């Protein structure tokens, strides 16, 4: 694992020699946020040693390096999921690489299903915590002390100071935000109505197929994390409609301007 990370890092540093301080993971339908960055270098995942390759529509599959709000940043335009057939170490490999490239803060986004009837498609939800009991933990196996402790504390996976900054940013622009718990599942099926009800009863405000494994590894490696979900469908609903991936992508795209504004302002304050 260490050898693979070092080889990937060395390859990237030969192409881009600036040290980024912020890493951004862009979820389904949110890859166009990378256009907000003053791009200095783009590297396709397929070119980087040991990197997986995105296979899901809405994930373009490249690292974008540049400047945003006066900071050097890396954006993952597309992430990797357990349901694609990758193991947990492959899913989180880019997070480890970004840490070794120098980032100190990780911003993660995702498209998620809401579990509240009164919520709306397009709502932005600050992730205040997550539930990951139904997804394989990426720290299972050998612990590398170079990464972090064997038993990392997860009492504050999403930093409260970053959450408070975002609340202030949103309030100043009159952007309505939800706040809740993200419930991680493996996918790739959307949840049944019974599963949505179960998730709601267990304390999940939104449910998705990503993020928790990335955040566990980020916390393990000492990164400060902020997470935001775009609510792209409402799982608990009365009507007999079905959920499609195309609708998820469109809802994420529609919400992107508000998310972009918040992230640009947050990065400026880091």
Note down, in words, how this protein is organized.
This protein is α/β, with parallel strands linked by helices and 270 residues long. It has a single domain (2-269), classed as Rossmann fold. It is 31% helix and 24% strand. The chain has 6 helices and 9 strands. Strands 5-8-7-6-9 form a 5-stranded mixed barrel, surrounded by 4 helices. A hairpin with a 2-residue loop joins strand 3 and strand 4. Helix 3 crosses helix 6 (245-269).
Summarize, please.
This protein has one domain (2-269): Nucleoside phosphorylase domain (Rossmann fold, 3-Layer(aba) Sandwich).
Notable traits:
Rossmann fold; five-stranded mixed beta barrel; alpha/beta; globular; 6 helices; 9 strands; 270 residues
Shape: globular
Overall helicity: 25-40%
Spatial strand arrangement across the major sheet: 5-8-7-6-9
Spatial gap, N to C terminus: 30 Å
Number of self-contained structural domains: 1
Report the count of strand segments. Answer: 9
Q: Please tell me the CATH architecture by its name.
A: 3-Layer(aba) Sandwich
Our count of helices gives 6
């Amino acid at each position: 694992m260490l050898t693979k990370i070092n080889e990937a890092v060395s390859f990237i540093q030969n192409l881009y020699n600036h040290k980024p301080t912020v890493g951004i993971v862009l979820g389904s339908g949110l890859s166009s946020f990378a256009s907000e960055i003053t791009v200095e270098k783009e590297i396709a995942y397929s070119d980087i040693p040991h990197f997986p390759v995105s296979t899901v529509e809405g994930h373009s599959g490249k690292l974008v390096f540049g400047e945003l709000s006066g900071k050097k940043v890396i954006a993952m335009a597309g992430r990797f999921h357990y349901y694609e057939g990758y193991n947990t170490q492959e899913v989180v490999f880019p997070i480890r690489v970004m840490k070794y490239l120098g980032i100190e803060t990780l911003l993660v986004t995702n498209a998620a299903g809401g579990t509240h009837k009164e919520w709306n498609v397009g709502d932005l939800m600050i992730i205040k915590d997550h539930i990951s009991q139904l997804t394989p933990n990426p720290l299972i196996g050998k612990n590398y002390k170079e990464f972090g402790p064997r038993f990392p504390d997860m009492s504050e996976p999403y930093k409260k100071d970053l959450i408070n900054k975002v609340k202030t940013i949103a309030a100043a622009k009159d952007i309505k935000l939800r706040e809740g718990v993200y419930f991680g599942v493996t996918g790739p099926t959307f949840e049944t109505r019974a599963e949505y009800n179960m998730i709601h009863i267990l304390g999940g405000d939104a449910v998705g197929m990503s993020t928790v494994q990335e955040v566990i590894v980020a916390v393990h490696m000492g990164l400060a994390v902020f997470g935001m979900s775009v609510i792209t469908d409402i799982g608990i609903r009365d009507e007999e409609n079905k959920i499609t991936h195309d609708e998820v992508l469109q809802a994420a795209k529609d919400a992107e301007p508000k998310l972009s504004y918040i992230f640009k302002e947050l990065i400026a304050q880091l």
